[in-house]
Amino acid sequence: MANIKHKIDNAGNKVAGKIKETVGKATGNEKLEVKGIVQSKKAEIKGKIEEITDKKVKK
């Protein structure tokens, strides 16, 4: 099973990324918006990798 700390970190990064994206959109700050998108997508990808490695370890 994936380390709980990694899951918490990923969830926090997803939320922080979504906040940055929203604030960037609201203020017209495209750079902040893109940073937020990248941050949340990175967290999603890390989460998927952990899920895959967990499945492989269980076999």
Brief write-up:
This protein has 59 residues and is mainly α. It has two helices and no strands.
Question: How does this model look, in words?
Answer:
The chain has helices spanning 4-27, 30-58. The protein has 59 residues and is an all-alpha fold. Helix 1 packs antiparallel against helix 2. The model has no long low-confidence stretch (mean pLDDT 91). It has one domain.
| Termini separation | 12 Å
Number of strand segments:
0
Helix content: over 70%
Number of domains: 1
Looking at the structure, what is the overall shape? elongated
Rounded mean pLDDT score: 91
Order of H and E elements: HH
Biggest pleated sheet: none
Q: Name the beta content range.
A: under 5%
Radius of gyration: 14 Å
Individual helix count: 2
> Which ranges are low-confidence, i.e. pLDDT below 50, for 5 or more consecutive residues?
none
Structural class by SSE content? mainly alpha
Itemize the secondary structure elements and their pairings.
Layout (H helix, E strand, L loop, with lengths): L3 H24 L2 H29 L1
Helix pairs in contact: 1-2
Highlighted features:
90% helix; 59 residues; elongated; mainly alpha; 2 helices
